[in-house]
What does this fold into?
Amino acid sequence: MSTTETSAPDRPLYPPKPGGWRRHQTFISSFGIFAVLAVLPWFPLLAFTGTFDTGNDFGAGNMAFVFAFAAAAVGFNLLVGYSGTLGLAHAGLFALGAYGTAILTAPAECLDFDTCDPVVREASSGYGWPFFVALPLVCVAAAIIGIVVGFPAARLKGFFLAIATLALGELIVTIIRLDDDVWSGLKTNGGTGKQVPIFRFWGAGPVTSAYYMALGALIITFIGYVILTERRLGRTLKAVRDTEIATGPIGISATYYKLVAFGLAAFSASLAGAAWAQNSAFVNPASFRTRLLVFLLVVLIVGGLGRLWGPLIGAVFFVYLRQELQSTQKLLFLLIGIALILTVLILPDGFASVPDRIRDSRWAQDLRKRFKSVGVK
Amino acid sequence: MDQLLQQIVAGLEAGSYYSLIGLAIVVIMKSTDVPNFAMAEMGLVAAYVAWWLSDDAEVGLPFALAIIIGLVFAAAFGAVTQFLLVRPLTGLSNQPLAVFSSLAFGFVMIDQIRERGLPAFIDWIPGLGGGYPTPIAVLLSIALVPISYFILRKWVKKLDVIDHFPLLLLTIGLNFALGSIIENLWSSTPQRFEAPWSGETFNVGDTRIGVDQLISISMGAAIALILAAFFRSKWGVRMRAIAEDGSTARMLGINAGAVSLIAWALGTSVAGAAMILNTSSTVLELGSAEGLILKGFIAAVLGGFVSLPGTFAGGLIVGVAEAVVGGQISTSLQPTMALLIVVAVLLISPGGLSREAKLREV
It folds into this structure.
């Protein structure tokens, strides 16, 4: 209380901590999220009745895309929204997860070598690792590469950093593409793409397995996001974003924390990329170029930058739009472009900020005042 | 040796397109501080207009006239974009945006309501499904216009601090929307947009050089010189003043809106020239802009986003490096060159190649 008296007599320096259940609001709301997510896995069971899983509906396959995009956007949100660092290498790191798991888990050779088509062999050969050995290794490797990609953050800021990381992300995809022409150590099968061996959970169908995989990726990134941003790391990243000039003198290395954010973002991107590849069953370098980055930006911006629920809302919006306009690709890009423009113009903080805006609007404030004067709490 | 010369000429040709797109980006960045990701796509719209006017199957005007109209269209298009989309975000009025987009919205909704009824999420209410007769559709649409006008007027707020990120996102959205509009107007099949001199070649020693290559290179250099001269003229000095210190320049009586409008018109016509040169020597297709915009940004980075000579030289360096590496070492290494160059330049000397850029905070 003494700090409030010295700094500002009538107003405390920070808003006071709310009492009661509001004190734990974030944890309660994230428990709500996990409850919803825990119910959702039962959804594909309806596939047996033939309602979902048709591939043409907003069924399990598209739900898996929603989760994968949301998981990637959660990490993107930590990097761009929370630490305020414009690292745009996310599409390349997404590709690392997809290609890494595809190559490591594919069987080493065809079982029946003589009848095996050489073209197919190229597209599906790998190292034959178990999936859950390959996945963490790929994610950790992607996190390390993400930290390397983040090194320009030590010297560059804002828009220039965005261009440097954009080029580095593009470079990752170009190297994947290069592989078959120059050397073939990575077994990425160059520009023609790679088949992804799908991990099956106890004999479940491919779509159902991919659904669980994407859901798992989303839960892991979500839990990680909530835990990390509620603690010291989240507050430090906020400080680095808002007052970078002041963090140095109090002994916080802004560069170090930016690199941590880069590493975490890369981890989530590759995890999401692996889940995405499980769902789409085929990876091609052309699908990880700037266009994917723009999709992730749309998910992030339309959902809400720096907001907990933003990525999930944005991913639902994006995948729904993509599914609705599947037959007319022309209109899809028009609507995505218009949605991005309108979001920047009208709702700079995305859909997730709508409740806040209503609460802070003059209309709601008047209403609250009136209720108070009447005596209704 | 002969091959090397040919590769260098091809590299200079590609490099002059990169330079022109980069110059267009720098002109707009210098005067309004907007990183325009849609620059190449806006130029592509002008190229499509020029093709549509000159093609015999469509309108069939003479080539030179079509190109002049295309460039004038590009200038008008850039000015309209600034007037509608960029003004509200850079601290000027949002009235034009609100008026124009609510009218456009109402116009689109007439068809929608007549054909498909109300939007899908409320047509389950009995009596609301299906289409409506034309008069009712027109009335409903007219009722929607003031609603969207008030929403836009009230909710589109100017930014407190002009930040690059929202503006970049805005232009990315514009990029996507324009690509889609082109596809809807003129299908996505590649078109042949032939200049009168297409296909003509001459020999220097044993090296065969196309006339269109020479024209592209010389036009690129000429446009760069014109731009350099422009920035020494009255309006050019005003632009530099606005870029240097916007509020002081406005206090001294410089009309920021007009300066910004001129910069957008100028930048878009430069981009239009680049895309017309590019598409008339290759083919006219939707993907033309996608490859050029990143290279244009790389050229602009090499110029530090302020220096015109630096940007021009940067574009040429990237083009020649790509062509020579592609020819001498391996074609598959070609796409990596520009990316390696930009990362190296940003890490070694973040301000780009010129000294002017050091003034800007990187």
About this structure: The two ends of chain A are 27 Å apart (CA to CA). The longest strand of chain A covers residues 194-195.
